[in-house]
Specification:
Number of strands: 0
Strand content: under 5%
Order of helices and strands: HHHHHHHHHH
Largest sheet: none
Amino acid sequence: ILAYIQAGGGIPASVFGDAAATTMALPLALVEFALIIYGLISRNKLMMMIIGFFALLMVIIGRWAIFRKAGRSGMLSLIPVISGYTEYAIAWKGGAYWMCCLFGLLAPAAPVGMIIRYFETGMSKALAPAAGMVMGLMCVCIVFWYGVVQNYKLSKAFGHSIFFALGLMLFRPLFLLILGLGSSRYQLGPK
């Protein structure tokens, strides 16, 4: 696929018709760009580390500016757990962060716990792993839902729409920078 794209590939107009190919040009260009970037970084671990470092740096700078706009100390963005708690507290409530952490810890523990219970009590061989997987999946869904609501509330706290929240979910480092360094103002008042 990558060689095809690098050779100037794309979906030919004959597949969807000229109008569809023109309409799909931008999304396909983005997909092609993403595949090229993936091809570059998947073979080069140093490139992956550099991109990860810059993404982390963007998150820290964005959170620092967001915290300052909300009347909090920017230094809180440097402490991992406190940074997440502060972001939740600014947009929503801090207790939601701890619930998200709890369910995040339970997600991998649920299948393991059910397998241990199988060996202790002799549950059905099919029931224990299946119940554990369902419980783990429920925990993952709850954590995902908390993340969606957090991004929406953070977006609303600075006067943005649901589309900005979608950007926060998909391109978090970039949108945190836009939120922190842009012209948006914190609208919920001091907490």
